[in-house]
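Why do we care about 3D structure at all? Because function follows from shape, and shape follows, mostly, from sequence. That is the central idea of this module. The next example makes it concrete: a single protein chain, its amino acid sequence, and then its structure expressed as tokens.
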Amino acid sequence: MQKQGSKSSERPPITTPLLANEQSQQGDPKFICPQFKGNASFHLEIRAQKATECLNNRDIEGALDILYAMKKGIVNDEYYEQNLYLVKNSLGAVLIKDKQYKDAIQELNEAIEIGKTIEMRDVYPYWLLGNANKSLAFRASREKKDQYLSAAHDAYYTAIKLSPEDLPSWAGLLDILLKQNRTQDAVECKDLLYKIASEDDMHAEILCSLAQIEIRREHHKEAMRLLDLSLKRDPGYVESLIQKSYLFSNARLPHEALKCINKAVKRKPDYGKAWLAKARIHENLGEYGDAIDSAARAVKVCPEMRVAHNLLHDLIFAHPGSAYHIDESLLTKA
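And the structure:
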């Protein structure tokens, strides 16, 4: 658990086998074990170590099997609730990695309730809960999107109340406010954030969120400065590359935009938003075949992204001669 009052842009996940560099997309992911207590702690830690090894080998299914078995086998002693709290946090984190967001939310809500009874002032499950709801919002229907965004907002806000200097939670809150189109609220949060942290403390994600606020305010020069600083922290941070491509496109520099977006899709080839941005850049360049290919990739990696389906259909309708190698199964709207 992060020490209250210490600024940290990369929270040390000592309670959960989660990505040690969760705030960065740079380098190989490394997981670490939670720390259990009581007579059965030795056996729990051995099994947690096996789950950790599975995660470091990208065997998420194996890790989940171990964690579910651990949850069933926790000894009912004086440390039962604390150990169950750790396992449920771990399950929530790994279920998020496996994109099982609703199951993650259930485990994390239960962990939070347990944490209240044992007086755990831990921001971590709230931050994870925000992440799970945010991911669901991205995939939800329009009717449910606002519900998930609101739940994510509340989770991040609670984490910040528990630890006002927890920068990952600030990054999540800023992102939600932007997704809710609450630009003025995001500006006010930005001003508060600068009172408790300097840019030297900030990681790539939060700098990118600050840049997006400036983009909304049409302060493009300041936005570019923040994006450059974000990419200095992590040269492969995909969201910053995408936002930088938007700025270059807006400045009518499509070839510079394409350079950024090509780095983004190379870095994270399963990210539909990056392929969608790439499709639009190719469309602006008149490269309709490449635009259709990119839109199709966006649909393939993120079938629930309706805007990608719509763009793909529009491109094929307007430029049918360019669509000769598209898989017809991708042409069904979400």
